[in-house]
Amino acid sequence: MAQKSPRLAKPASEPAVEKADRKKKEARLARLKANGTQSELMRMALKACLIARDATFNIQDLLTNSSRMAFLAIRDCEKELDQIERKIDEQLPGAITRVNEARARQLLACLKCITDLERIGDLVMGVAQRVQTRSGQLPAADVRHLIQMSAILHDMLEDIHSGFISLDVDSARKVLRMDAELDKICHSMFQRYLTDNSRQKDSLGFDVLLMAQALERSGDHAKNLAEELYSLIEGHTLRHLPKRVIST
After folding, report:
1. How far is CA 176 from CA 67, 157, 195, 223, in A?
2. Which CATH class name applies to 25-247?
3. What's the whole-model pTM score?
4. What angle (nearest 5°) sits at the alpha carbon of residue 240, between those of residues 107 and 238?
């Protein structure tokens, strides 16, 4: 009679308590990793705000002194904003699936903000290229207005940065008021060029208006940032509300 082969003992199953503890540990580690990724994404978005702010400071230097270093600094800012946008685009989808609703809102705010900040970098770089091309040719009055617009944009981004750090809704309202001031300067420049027959309607005047328009559009993107800050703090959007509500 053939002998029966001995049966192999089944591996002991993991005790239920140990299995539950292991799952809890894995979940805790996943949350810590998600929180770490979220913190890094928010840090990058805040850094991007400072980079865009620095670009507006350097455009003032470029307009005032025709500084080559200022032009190179603006170019570096634009490149760095592009890099940060790519990193946030790559990391955010995975991070947002592992956090709660409140943290998901913060991550979405990061995504919206970097989109506007990257666009500001592009617009300021466009202004810098036109200033570089027209070095020494821009009328003094136009230079003063462009510097004034750049200074307002710089202050808007400064307030946005501090507002996101302290979650200060007053910073958002302040930026919205400054955007109206920026629009006013831009519109006055267009009006002067279009109505003053003594001004030569040449490519130089056209470039001046394109620069003013680029700075005004940068202000619109900064306004978007202020609206996002307001939404993050108050829990509802500020867009499409009556102006009297916004100013209160």
Report:
1. 31, 11, 29, 6
2. mainly alpha
3. 0.81
4. 40
